[in-house]
Amino acid sequence: MAVNATPEYEKADARYRAATTPADQLDALQEMLRLIPKHKASEKLQSDLKRKISALRKDMTSGAPHGASQHVDPYHLPPGGAGQVVLVGLPNTGKSSVVAAVTTAPVKVAEFPFSTSHPVPGMWHWEDTQIELVDTPPITADHIDGGLVNLLRLTGVVAIVADESSPDSLDQVQTMLSLLSQRQMELFDLPAAQIAAQGRTGKPGLIILTHTKMNDAAELSAFAELLGCKLTVCPVDCQEKRGFKDLAGHIWRLLNVIRVYTKRPGQKPDGSAPFTLPVGSTLADLARAIHRDLPERLKFARIWGDGRHPGQQANRSEPLHDKDVVEIHE
Ligand SMILES: Nc1nc2c(ncn2[C@@H]2O[C@H](COP(=O)(O)OP(=O)(O)O)[C@@H](O)[C@H]2O)c(=O)[nH]1
Ligand SMILES: [Mg+2]
Question: Is the pLDDT higher at 276 or at 4?
């Protein structure tokens, strides 16, 4: 659901997720409650925040040594925005740099390995929507954090990060693919619904090559061929900020969501605040995303969009398409 949080809110959110003490968590949560845009779409989030604040206060005042706040799992990161992408890779491959290039998340970029010690989420404002990227500590053949594996199972897309300027760039990707596969996690160049429809288990995945000097498609397909896997390879340069538009396009394809704009009768659509819904969603699904009681009250809707008669009338089972504009009549 589109809450349209401001960058300040996201900073507070990142601070909350990165906080390691109850006091820091409380401080960040209070700031989030102060900064969250107050409208219908954010009601649930507002009440979640209030609930967390009151639980944390209770814990802190009771001085419970084993209070819930002391068991905060840093890998518990429910997806935000239109969908979540977790970046994984060997040490020093550029995971933090990718997140730093397109979000304001407080990640640590460093020339030395193991500089990232806990996951850090950040929101990437892409076109008129937001994609959540999560920076993570490195995976090595000797160590994969169990929390990270759980996060990978729950996330929308897994992105393997490798350093193209390194002579081992191919190995870096292959090592990651085999470490993931040892944990029964195969990656596919397909959205989750299509993986399931083919009767397979696995995750949508792609490969991000940092430090890239590649600027021609032939070089890229030679790399992909040598790699011998069917995932899309997205070359980026984090310092020059090259390659990110294509990367966002591939992530979007794998997230498999649509953007739908709503409008009130006689008014222009709110072009800044699309609702994001899974591909295949209907008008009833949109109504539910707006408010849980709305599907019952919904009489019909008028829809504008590609391949539609302007303002065509539709009922609750109407499938919606990317960039439809919907006027709901109750
Ligand atoms: N020139 C260039 N340097 C990069 C790029 N990506 C990462 N780096 C550098 O590589 C080093 C490791 O990056 P970092 O993001 O900390 O790697 P991580 O350990 O995987 O998070 C840092 O010195 C970065 O500045 C890139 O695309 N281009
Ligand atoms: Mg890092």
Answer: 276
Q: Please write the tens of the pLDDT for every residue from 208-242.
A: 999 998 767 788 888 888 888 889 999 999 999 99
From ligand 1's centre to the CA of 238, what distance in Å?
Answer: 7
Residue 176 in contact with ligand 1 by CB distance below 6 A:
no
- Is CATH 3.40.50.1400 what the domain over 258-329 is classified as, yes or no? no
Ligand nearest to the CA of 110: 1
Taking CB atoms within 8 Å and a gap of at least 24, the contacts of 19-23 are: 20/72, 22/56, 22/59, 22/60, 22/67, 22/69, 22/70, 23/60
- Which pTM value belongs to this model? 0.77
Strand, helix or coil for residue 154: helix
Q: Work out the number of other CB atoms within 10 angstroms of the CB of residue 262.
A: 21
Mutation pick for ligand 1 pocket among 95, 98, 107, 109 (CB with most ligand atoms within 8 Å)? 109
Reduced to 3 states, what is the DSSP secondary structure of residue 8? Answer: helix
Highest average pLDDT, of 42-46, 218-222, 270-274, comes from 42-46
> 136, 87 in Cβ contact below 8 A?
yes
Q: What ligand 1 atom has the least distance to the C-alpha of 114? A: 19
Least distant ligand from the CA of 109: 1
Domain boundaries, the chain: 7-71, 84-255, 258-329
Instruction: Report the SS3 class of residue 320.
Output: coil
pLDDT > 60? residue 159: yes
Q: CATH for 84-255?
A: 3.40.50.300
Ligand nearest to the CA of 119: 2
**What digits encode the pLDDT tens for the residues 174-199?**
999 999 998 889 999 999 999 999 99
For residue 173, CA distances in Å to 112, 141, 177, 185, 236 come to 20, 12, 6, 14, 15
Q: Is 140 in the pocket of ligand 1 (CB under 6 A)?
A: no
CB of 240 closer than 6 angstroms to any ligand 1 atom: no
Q: Give yes or no for residue 243 CB within 6 A of ligand 1.
A: no
